[in-house]
Structure formats: structure tokens, C-alpha cells
């Protein structure tokens, strides 16, 4: 399957999960999709308050954390114990806050002054809603297939 990743802010102990944005989470899809827009808006300071609620990564270290990576200095600094041998991906998944949902909500609420009648936020909201519906349908089909398989093997 390959390496999957999060975008991590170790200073704030927060991360973004690309899958929550309907994006792929494998390494070759790094910063391709709506999670990239979220990272850009979280990290940039252009005198515009893109996000409310104190969600800002401006000036903070932001890193790629893959599930197949070795433990490094960032993971060691983020870990609560020197005996911990987890990599940053595992530490983020288990100990950090996934801020994907509030960031998606803020992306969908944000209206750009430069946008025409159909704003960027409404396009993002429409695409994410369609992706969520599509994922739900696929998940339901998978669950039904697994139930059928269980019943036929019993």
C-alpha cells in the first residue's frame, strides 16, 4: 500500500489528516488537494484572519510525518518519554489533536473577497460533501459485502 502521512505541527501538538479532506494520504499525494490549501492558510500571515478560534500555525514548525519513517529528533522531542520508540506519525495519531474537522469547517466558511458568485468556500463545501457521500456509499457496500461473506461462511 505504501507510506501514509499526516501534516504535523509538533509545537502545538496538532495534525491534519489528508483523508479527512477527501484527499489521498500516500506520500506521492503530499500537499496535493484541499489539505494543502489548509496548510497554506494555517501557516501564512498576510494580515487576513483566515481562521478563527486560535487555529494558526504561523511561525510554527510544520512537518510531514509518514508511518514508515524512522524515529527522528522531532519525534524524540515530541515524545513524553525517552523510552518511547514511536515515530512522529504514531505519536501524532495517538497523542496529538487532529484539527482536520474544524479546519475543514473554517475552509468551508471562509469567503474570499476575490471570488466571484460561487465562492471558493462553497466549492470546497460541495466537493467535500460529495466525497463524503461517495465514501459513505462505498463503506456501506463494503459492510454489506462483509456481512454476506460472513453469513455464507457460517
Structure description:
A 4-stranded mixed β-sheet has the order 3-1-2-4, covered by helices on one side. The protein has 154 residues and is an alpha+beta fold. The protein contains 5 helices and 4 strands. Helices cover 44% and strands 9% of the residues. The chain is flat, with a radius of gyration of 18 Å. The protein starts with a strand and ends with a helix. The mean pLDDT is 75. α4 (100-109) crosses α5 (120-153).
Write the layout of secondary structure elements.
Blueprint: E1 5-9, E2 14-16, H1 34-43, E3 63-66, H2 73-78, H3 88-95, E4 97-98, H4 100-109, H5 120-153
Parallel strand pairs: 2-4
Antiparallel strand pairs: 1-2, 1-3
Helix pairs in contact: 4-5
Give a brief outline of the structure:
By secondary structure, the chain is of the alpha+beta class. It has a four-stranded mixed sheet with strand order 3-1-2-4, with helices on one face. A hairpin with a 4-residue loop joins strand 1 and strand 2 (14-16).
* Radius of gyration, CA atoms, in whole angstroms: 18 Å
Oligomer: single chain
Q: Tell me the total number of β-strands.
A: 4
- Helix percent reads 40-55%
Overall morphology: flat
Main pleated-sheet profile? 4 strands, mixed
Key structural traits:
alpha+beta, four-stranded mixed β-sheet, 5 helices
